[in-house]
Amino acid sequence: MLCGTLIKKLVNSDIAVSLIMTNLLPYRQKIEPLGKMLKQLLILLKK
């Protein structure tokens, strides 16, 4: 019985994580270009 509930909890947390990740995808796609721009700015400022 204990193993069953453990598996259920793991599956539920897995679903929760995948849901969070899919919800964050649009934000990540917006944030990543910003990160690249910031890196380029830092490189330019260091020169």
How would you sum up this structure in a few lines?
The protein is mainly α. It contains one helix and no strands.
Describe the structure in your own words.
This protein is mainly alpha-helical and 47 residues long. The protein has one domain (1-47). It has 1 helix and no strands. The longest helix is centred in the middle third of the chain and has 45 residues, at 2-46.
Write the layout of secondary structure elements.
Elements: H1 2-46
Which features does this protein show?
single chain; mainly alpha; elongated; 96% helix; 47 residues
Global morphology:
elongated
Secondary-structure-based class equals: mainly alpha
Percent of residues in β-strands: under 5%
Q: On the 0-100 scale, what is the average pLDDT?
A: 81
> Quaternary status of these chains?
single chain
Largest sheet at a glance? none
SSE order, as H and E?
Answer: H
- Distinct helical segment count: 1
Number of strands: 0
Into how many domains do the coordinates divide? 1
Backbone CA Rg: 19 Å
* Portion in helices: over 70%
Q: Which runs of at least 5 residues are low in confidence (pLDDT < 50)? A: none
End-to-end separation: 63 Å
